[in-house]
Design brief:
CATH class: Mainly Beta
Number of strands: 3
Strand order of the largest sheet: 2-1-3
Strand content: 25-35%
Order of helices and strands: EEE
Mean pLDDT: 85
CATH architecture: Single Sheet
Number of helices: 0
Helix content: under 10%
Number of domains: 1
CATH topology: Rubrerythrin, domain 2
Radius of gyration: 11 Å
Bound molecules: zinc ion
Low-confidence stretches: none
């Protein structure tokens, strides 16, 4: 058993909060390669 919050070994799209750039990666690619902002996983539902 591994304590993970997301499916491992699967690339998911991350979107920049600030500029909207999308980076597909297995792990959080923060900071944004374009503006240095914070990235979020697009597949994570936001409350
Ligand atoms: Zn950005």
């Amino acid at each position: 058993m591994r304590d993970v919050t997301q499916t491992p070994d699967e690339e998911t799209p991350y979107e920049c909060f600030d500029c909207g750039a999308v980076v597909v990666a297995e792990d959080d690619p923060s900071p944004c390669p374009k503006c240095g902002g914070e990235m979020r996983n697009r597949q994570t539902p936001l409350e």
